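User:
Note these tokens:
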Amino acid sequence: MQNPDWVKFLSKTKSALLFLFFMMAIQGCQGDIPQDASIEISLQLKTGGQPYLLLSEEKKTRVINLNGFYEMEDLIPDLALEKEFTVAGNVYIVTSLFGQVPAADFDSPRKKLYEYYLEIYDSGRELADLNYLHRDEENDWSIIFDKNFSQLNQEGYCLLTFKDSISGVDCLVRGNYSLFCRSGEKTVEHEGRQAIAITTARLMVGNREYLEGGGVLAGTAGGNYLLIAKVVDWNLDGRFDQEDRVVFPNLAAEQYYPFGEKLELPFIDLLTSSFEGQISKRRYVLKLSSSSKKGETPEYTLKIQSRR
């Protein structure tokens, strides 16, 4: 008859050996995990991009006494912006405006209708030729901040295009605003109720032309991943070169990477398994090269090169 302690020891030893074999198998699989995402991607010129360059963003908070002396209309100045920018070296000024519109409903004389829109002027204060893609319908801004007020939430945007008359660069400009206001409880016996108002306004611009291309990265277990890359005209000079930026829309849609610097790129997460903590992340350098023949459109290539 076998010793129970000896049987117990053999059982534990067997379990330990099985676990060790399992971990060695996993480590062997890890050898197939690619740790290098160096690749070259051919890029094509496309039109119809989105604004990507933030010109201005302002967020303001104010406390309002709910005594009936303030209206929603009084918050409009907090949402108006004006910002200067350049396109191919030419100076422009974009302004966000709220234009008052006469109320068509004569049964509601208290209505105060405003339309949110943008205007763009050149350095000589001449209005540029604007093509509006979207303008919000007018909204009523006549709400009174009194004891009956509870809360409001309103937002809007304007989207337009214009061309620089000298270079022909076609730009897309977007402005948007948001307003949130909520009342609070009365905290002191002799004080009235108050409300907090938070306003946010933003202006963005971008060249409608951009470069885009895709390449296939090999992943684990024979899996392949399509990497999409876009190059945007970051300085709005109408050219694509090392001064611009790269974005990977399917990985980090709002992260724009510069050329020529050592970077950690998010696509490494596509290529590693759940054991990525055991894999040292590489750094990469982005480069843009171009070649062209006389009278032909330049051909662009994005190079993603591994660096230790």
